[in-house]
Amino acid sequence: MAKISVFEAGHCFHPACVVLRGAGWQPCAFPARAWLIEAAGHRWLWDTGYASHFADHTREGIFRLYPMVTPVHFDARQSLRAQLAERGLRSSDLDGIIASHFHADHIAGLRDFPGLPIICSGSGWEVTRHRRGVTALRRAFVPGLMPPDTEPRLRFIEGFEPIALPAELAPFGSGWALPGSHREVLLVELPGHAAGHIGAFVQTAEGWQLLAADAAWAPQNYTERRPPSRLTHLIMEDPRAYHHTLDRLHQLHTQGSVKIRLTHEDLSEATSC
């Protein structure tokens, strides 16, 4: 069975009501989580969280607006690379980085892991790769965070083995097996939040878990069907698809056999943080 370990690499601040309607205007800290997935003798990172590169590439030009709108707290000791080093793991001990999507708080650490394959949605990259300036900023993409050798490192999920998902993962019916994972890691589309947004079903000793990235920002988005503020539609790739994904997460939650894990979920109640 696969194993997943969670890390927090910095956090950002938003008013609670942005991520959960009716939660009030008090500012809440939302961690930027990343995971280490270990399966069949291999290791992959799921996203990277923030890194020092984020500050480097948002100091000037249009991208300086990013931390103004979304204040970020990050300490170098929180970098995913530093936290893995504390566990005795180096970049060479990893088999790749899975990018759930290309928002800055998910890819800021890519440059800390030179040479590793970057696994992602090919359709999402095709939409994102040419974005610059205001168009990129509106979609939370900071082009400078991508390593200079990105293209030869990319591995697109569309080229992986397509599979029908086990019945207990309904309403999700199809996906792709992560090569080398012995089908213990199954990648799926979770559209709406960002171009090419994906999730990963991971079969652990405790049962299936879904790394859902930003398919929701708080559990109440899908457990209580309380969506984020409509203001978030301004940065979403496809609001209609996003709400359809929330509906599917609600169904998955209701049937109760899969634990859903979100990137930015605050560990306190969003209404009292």
Number of domains: 1
**Helix- and strand-based class?**
alpha/beta
| Average of per-residue pLDDT values | 95
Count helical runs.
10
The helix-strand sequence is: EHEEHHEHEHEHHHEEEEEEHHE
CATH architecture: 4-Layer Sandwich
CATH topology: Metallo-beta-lactamase, Chain A
How much of the sequence is in beta strands? 25-35%
Give me a quick take on this structure:
The chain is α/β, with parallel strands linked by helices.
Topology:
Layout: E1 3-15, H1 16-19, E2 27-39, E3 42-46, H2 52-56, H3 65-69, E4 72-73, H4 80-86, E5 96-98, H5 104-107, E6 118-120, H6 122-128, H7 133-138, H8 150-153, E7 154-156, E8 161-164, E9 174-177, E10 185-189, E11 198-204, E12 207-213, H9 220-223, H10 239-255, E13 259-262
Parallel strand pairs: 3-5, 5-6, 6-7, 12-13
Antiparallel strand pairs: 1-2, 1-4, 2-3, 8-9, 9-10, 10-11, 11-12
Q: Would you write up a description of this structure?
A:
The protein is of the alpha/beta class and 273 residues long. The chain has a single domain, classed as Metallo-beta-lactamase, Chain A (4-Layer Sandwich). Helix content is 23%, strand content 27%. The protein is built from ten helices and 13 strands. A seven-stranded mixed sheet has the order 4-1-2-3-5-6-7. A six-stranded mixed sheet has the order 8-9-10-11-12-13, with no helix packed on it. A hairpin with a 2-residue loop joins β11 (198-204) and β12. It is globular.
Key structural traits:
273 residues, alpha/beta, Metallo-beta-lactamase, Chain A, seven-stranded mixed β-sheet, six-stranded mixed β-sheet, 13 strands, globular
